[in-house]
Input
Amino acid sequence: MTRMAAMPWDQPAPEREGLPSAWSLFPEDLEALGCPGSALETFRRLHRPWTWKDGAPELGVSIRRWLSGVADLNLPRLAEKQPSEDGSTKLALELADGKRIEAVHMPRKVRNPRVTYCISSQVGCAMGCTFCATGSMGILRNLQPGEILGQVLSLMSELGPDRGHLLTLVFMGMGEPLHNLDNLHRAIRLMCHPAGLGLGKNRITVSTSGLVSGIEKLALLEPRPLLALSLNATTDEARSRTMPVNRVWNLARLRRALDTWGAKRGEKFCFEYVLLAGENDTEADAERLADWLGDLRSGHNLNLIPMNEHAASSFHQPSEDRVQQFAEWLKARGCFVTVRRSRGRDVQGACGQLVKGKAGSPTENT
Output
């Protein structure tokens, strides 16, 4: 496919200036910087919020003094909490430079209770998807690895759970995770460290709008998280209209990237399809979607997500009858389908509704 002029995601996003976050550092980094005492124990105290006191790690006077000279000891600050009637909570987190990001805390009432966090990877987003509120912000900057991880630690400290093995993470908040791949993957490595949260890689899902260059790089990294792909259209014309990334990497190229991913045992793709009334919800769309999935249609999950309406987009949610009909059309073609009821809709915390400015600026989703 002929490549056009450089797109916003072709350029590196701005980075935060200043000292690296203390939560960006591995034990070997702490040791190389001259950590007094055990670098591994310092890492353990930083990364296990269930051992903290009064919302902060107990480091000891000498280590805290030393660490404050070589690293930033600020965690994202919980600035706003908006509880939803469904039990989830939308959270605004303020970063050290005053910028704000959003996350969602979603407890699950199942036999073995877990909590899912929907977290952000950037402030804003460069992808420009026309149905997504975050896309209306543009890209402001990347999150550092310690800021990505810091969301998780702050939420665990304030809201639980009290151990990493009870946690599931989805990178479906603000930003395109694969546009910030280096910082993202360092954060994932930190989260999976056995002296820290000790998360299993299959408890982490990274969602992309279809940044093929990032998909192909992530496929080669370890630990490799699960991959979710936001499709949302079944023709290149329609997808390019709502998702500019398709003008560079079309549906056929995207499908080839999945073929070369090389799914391992226990790995499943998650396909996300936002249903937009009158735009992508016909029986012909269902047939094309099943054809595109091909041999992936039965072994991997297809999430249908009725559009979560917001003021930045003119698209609307289909009727409940059309949502169910679309699901039936797909099931008849052998697809494994889930209709996902986005949590936090009443507080503008659902998929595609996250948008924030600086501290002191309006915080409504616009």
Summary: Residues 68 and 108 are 37 Å apart (CA to CA). Residues 343-355, 359-366 have pLDDT under 50 and may be disordered. The longest helix spans residues 145-159.
